[in-house]
């Protein structure tokens, strides 16, 4: 594992860092994508406390003030891409006016900033970012190829944004578009809380208070947006985190159960097998 920072000729910047302990307070000078490849890193943005893991990532808009906190028993590998403002604007203009765009012209004009929330790190964006990191870790420096990776990362993010924000907002049963966007913003606060506190005992009342919604309103709209109840979403998230621990650590199964917030090993094993068609032990053997 190696640390590096790379500034390209077009002022795009890439950072890779490995640490176990540390705090850092700063602001984002550029639009950036933030990832971790092992462990987890906490971001404080105002009163919001967000933790990102290897199955998720965070975006920060230009000018956002934030602080990071790392306190982990295992090394935390963090990786971030900062996009130069002109590079980003050129890409947005290209993306908004292509025939196969996912963001419509109206959405492009109305939303100059993106939702600073936790997004799933999977599929094409995981493939591209992982290959970019491997390329840089190996000491390669071809800026043309690196910028191709960065362009594809933006394409991947815009696709995720379309799925996670625009399409989910359309699922909400409100007539007014601004109401849909506001309710989804609050639902994302609930989603962030689940992502960051998945191993805690979370009540519906806590979740509703954090998202500034009533319990009934939260239950109804969360299911509309995410096709899952908050409890179902939490169970799936815990199972995904169990996969990460089974794959990347040697913790005994009982310890994994405790770390992800389950109280009963037999319930965890049954749910894991039902969801993934394999027992946790066999999954660890082949992962």
UniProtKB/TrEMBL annotation:
<keyword id="KW-0238">DNA-binding</keyword>
<feature type="domain" description="HTH araC/xylS-type">
    <location>
        <begin position="188"/>
        <end position="286"/>
    </location>
</feature>
<keyword id="KW-0805">Transcription regulation</keyword>
<feature type="compositionally biased region" description="Polar residues">
    <location>
        <begin position="7"/>
        <end position="25"/>
    </location>
</feature>
<dbReference type="InterPro" id="IPR009057">
    <property type="entry name" value="Homeodomain-like_sf"/>
</dbReference>
<feature type="region of interest" description="Disordered">
    <location>
        <begin position="1"/>
        <end position="25"/>
    </location>
</feature>
<protein>
    <submittedName>
        <fullName>AraC-like DNA-binding protein</fullName>
    </submittedName>
</protein>
<dbReference type="InterPro" id="IPR018060">
    <property type="entry name" value="HTH_AraC"/>
</dbReference>
<dbReference type="Pfam" id="PF12833">
    <property type="entry name" value="HTH_18"/>
</dbReference>
<keyword id="KW-0804">Transcription</keyword>
């Amino acid at each position: 594992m190696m640390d590096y920072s790379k500034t390209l000729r077009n002022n795009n910047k890439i950072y890779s860092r490995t640490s176990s302990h540390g705090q850092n307070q700063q602001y984002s000078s550029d639009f950036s994508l933030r990832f971790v490849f092992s462990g987890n890193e906490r971001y404080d943005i105002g009163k919001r406390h967000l933790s990102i893991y290897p199955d998720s990532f965070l975006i920060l808009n230009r000018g956002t003030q934030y602080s990071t906190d790392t306190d982990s028993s295992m090394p935390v590998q963090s990786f971030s891409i900062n996009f130069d403002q002109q590079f980003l604007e050129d890409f947005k203009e290209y993306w908004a006016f292509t025939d196969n765009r996912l963001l419509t012209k109206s959405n492009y004009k109305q939303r100059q900033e993106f939702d600073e929330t936790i997004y799933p790190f999977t599929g094409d964006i995981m493939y591209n970012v992982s290959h970019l990191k491997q390329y840089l870790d190996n000491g390669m420096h071809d800026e043309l190829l690196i910028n191709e990776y960065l362009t594809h990362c933006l394409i991947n993010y815009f696709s995720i944004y379309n799925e996670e924000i625009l399409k989910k907002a359309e699922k909400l049963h409100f007539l007014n578009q601004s109401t849909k966007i506001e309710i989804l913003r609050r639902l994302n606060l609930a989603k962030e809380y689940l992502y960051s506190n998945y191993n805690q005992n979370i009540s519906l009342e806590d979740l509703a208070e954090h998202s500034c919604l009533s319990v009934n309103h939260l239950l109804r709209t969360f299911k509309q947006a995410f096709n899952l109840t908050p409890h179902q979403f939490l169970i799936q998230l815990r199972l995904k985190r169990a996969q990460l621990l089974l794959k990347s650590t040697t913790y005994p199964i009982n310890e994994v159960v405790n770390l992800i917030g389950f109280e009963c090993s037999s319930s965890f094993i049954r749910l894991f097998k039902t969801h993934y068609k394999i027992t946790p032990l066999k999954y660890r053997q082949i992962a």
